[in-house]
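It is worth pausing here to work through a concrete case rather than discussing structure prediction in the abstract. The textbook approach is simple: state the sequence, then state the predicted structure, then interpret. We follow exactly that order.
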Amino acid sequence: MKQTHISPETLQELTSQLHTKKEQLESQLSSFAKKDPNLKGDWDTEYPRVPQGNLEEAADEVEEYSTKLHVEFALETQLKNVDMALERMQSGDYGICTQCETPIPLDRLKVSPEAAMCGKCTA
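Step two, the predicted structure:
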C-alpha cells in the first residue's frame, strides 16, 4: 500500500517538518554529545573530566553525565523515528501503519509527522 491518502503538497510540508525536527534534535545532541563514527545514528555523551582531589565536584560531574545519558537516549530515539519516517517517505510507505498497514490519519501525521502507527495500534 502506498501513501495515496496524502497530497503531494501535504507530503512536502511534512517532509519539511521532519527535516526541521531532525536539525533541531541533532543540534540539541551536539551540545553535549558527539556522533559515533562507527555506529550510524548513535551519539556518545562525553564523560566528564573528573578533577582529582575534589570529591564533591567529581560527584557533581558524574551526576550530570548520568543525567545527560538519559537525555541522549531520548533524543536519539526521537531522531531515529524521524530518520525512519524520512526513509518511509523515500520508499513510498509513509503514512501507512507499520503494524496493521492501514493509512495513518492525516491529523495524526500533522501533529507527529514521524508517527509510524495509527492510533489503534499505539493504544
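Step three, interpretation. The two ends are 22 Å apart (CA to CA). The chain has a mean pLDDT of 85.
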